[in-house]
Amino acid sequence: MTKLSIPIAALSFVAVVSAAHADPQKLAEEKQCLICHSVDNKIGRATGFKTIAQKYSGKADAEANLVQMIKKGGVGHWGYVPMPPAGWKRPDVSEAEAKELVDWILALH
Ligand code: HEC
Q: What is the residue range of the signal peptide feature (predicted)?
């Protein structure tokens, strides 16, 4: 039995690391953000994340505002096409996940 406990501890460590999402772009894929947004503006349904980063990076309240936008959706910042709230026809996004996504997006510029 004691022999077994070491591999199990190693496995749960791997699980914790992957839950922290070392790769935010993967998180964006999992949350289906990239259905509408591209990272570098290659597809057109919603503004690319690089352009969004250029508009907001360095602005003091950008992180908090964009976290709210990701959770609740919104319209009118880029045009008349609305962004639906998280959890509507796609995976829900926690506050921590939204923060991680925003920090990644804002660093893209
Ligand atoms: C169904 C299409 C769609 C999906 C899916 C989507 N978005 Fe959006 N997103 C939009 C549209 C459209 C806008 C522009 C809305 C506007 O003009 O206010 C937008 C705007 C944004 C903005 C800029 C907000 C602002 O205030 O300027 C951010 C940041 C963003 N999205 C992040 C995300 C993230 C992160 C995800 C995944 C969790 C995601 N989006 C999923 C369509 C989408």
A: 1-22
When divided into structural domains, the chain yields a total of 1
pLDDT tens string 51-80: 999 999 999 999 999 999 999 999 999 999
Q: Which domain holds residue 44?
A: 23-106
27: number of Cβ within 10 Å? 17
Q: Which of 63, 83, 105 to mutate to test the pocket of ligand 1 (most atoms within 8 A of CB)?
A: 83
109 is in an annotated binding site: no
Position 17 in a domain:
no
